């Protein structure tokens, strides 16, 4: 779901990035917020959407962390956006470690992780920031995320707030698998959810640091779900706020049919469940996930999508090959693992509800 942030996965050690910034003292109601856009070869999106971010920043700092772009992104920023702070990373770290490296250099009380292909709207930031100020238990919040191509519909990446079923399949209010709902004000509320979208995510800096940011081994895709699950396990709350809205292009880095994205989603989906689920909700769901992944792989094969078929196999081999790492992560988290009573969990199977029972809307799942 990440746009123009790079997908050049590396396994070597991470060098320390350097920065070239234009420090400015922000003024305004959101002066303690830093809006951080991770960019990789996204000059087109920066040119299109960065002016709106600056216009509607409400006093927040605006920072672009460049993931060693090879296009003219850096030249564009220096020439056309002198008010934007620029952090230059030494190489393309991918989405997860790119943000970890960048935010380690930012000292604002709140961070906004904002995709470069997001168009913000008037007044989008203040409700999010105010929510975290009012309730110190809330560590992260997302706005309503609409499709840029047609803002009357929700967008795939986050929509009206993220949920998980008992097998840790993610879905949203406003989006079940590839079925998107029309925005008719049905999700204009504010409520706790299981996860908030990394396309536009306001995070409390103290919570980010306590959890060491995003899981670098994920590289990209589903990393915000893992982060939000860890937040809940640590006793924090994650919210959605429908009084704030942005529009997301989506698919700027990888289209949803790309085998690379299939690989990341299947591999990270297994890791997500294994490293975060409480013992009572792990082994049965894990077995069922393996079976359903096999079914998905066969569906790709029958449909002639050989690239996606091999992506599923590669995802499983990668997970098993790195099992020692994931087991270490689970052991470290074990004292904090919580049961499915946490917020935003559907006790049924989304796959069964959607494909077998024909449930196409969130409201049809009989989930509060």
From TrEMBL:
It comes from the Bacteria. This is Glycosyltransferase family 2 protein. Residues 1-25 are annotated as: Disordered. InterPro entries: Glyco_trans_2-like (IPR001173), Nucleotide-diphossugar_trans (IPR029044). SUPFAM superfamilies: Nucleotide-diphospho-sugar transferases. Belongs to the glycosyltransferase 2 family. Residues 12-22 have a biased composition (Polar residues). The keyword Chloroplast does not apply. Residues 35-142 form the Glycosyltransferase 2-like domain. Keywords: Glycosyltransferase, Transferase. Pfam families: Glycos_transf_2.
């Amino acid at each position: 779901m990440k746009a123009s942030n790079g997908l050049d996965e590396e396994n070597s050690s991470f060098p320390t990035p350097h920065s070239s910034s234009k420090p400015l003292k922000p003024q305004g109601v959101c002066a303690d917020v830093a809006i951080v856009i991770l960019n990789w070869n996204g000059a087109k999106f920066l040119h299109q959407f960065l002016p709106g971010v600056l216009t509607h920043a409400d006093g927040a700092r605006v920072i672009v962390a460049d993931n060693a772009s090879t296009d003219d992104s850096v030249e564009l920023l220096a020439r056309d956006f002198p008010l934007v702070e620029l952090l230059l990373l030494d190489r393309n770290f991918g989405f997860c470690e790119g943000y970890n490296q960048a935010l380690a250099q930012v000292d604002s009380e709140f961070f906004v992780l904002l995709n470069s292909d997001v168009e913000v709207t008037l007044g989008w930031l203040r409700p999010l920031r105010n929510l975290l100020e009012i309730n110190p238990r809330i560590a992260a919040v997302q706005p309503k995320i609409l499709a840029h191509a047609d803002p009357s519909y929700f967008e795939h990446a986050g929509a009206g707030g993220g949920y998980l079923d008992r097998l840790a399949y993610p879905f949203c209010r406003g989006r079940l698998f590839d079925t998107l709902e029309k925005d008719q004000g049905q999700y204009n509320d504010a409520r706790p959810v299981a996860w908030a979208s990394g396309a536009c995510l306001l995070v409390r800096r103290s919570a980010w640091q306590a959890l060491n940011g995003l899981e670098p081994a994920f590289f990209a895709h589903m990393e915000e779900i893992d982060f939000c699950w860890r937040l809940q396990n640590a006793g924090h709350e994650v919210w959605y706020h429908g009084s704030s809205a942005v529009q997301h292009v989506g698919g700027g880095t990888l289209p949803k049919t790309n085998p690379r994205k299939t690989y990341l989603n299947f591999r990270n989906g297994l890791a997500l469940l294994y490293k975060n689920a409480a013992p009572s909700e792990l082994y049965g769901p894990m077995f069922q996930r393996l079976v359903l992944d096999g079914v998905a792989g066969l569906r790709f094969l029958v449909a002639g999508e050989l690239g996606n078929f091999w992506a599923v196999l590669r995802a499983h081999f990668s997970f098993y090959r790195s099992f020692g790492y994931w087991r270490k992560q689970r052991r470290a988290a074990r004292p904090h693992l919580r049961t499915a009573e946490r917020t935003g969990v559907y006790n049924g199977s989304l796959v069964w509800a959607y494909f077998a029972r024909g449930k196409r809307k969130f409201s049809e799942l009989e989930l509060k």
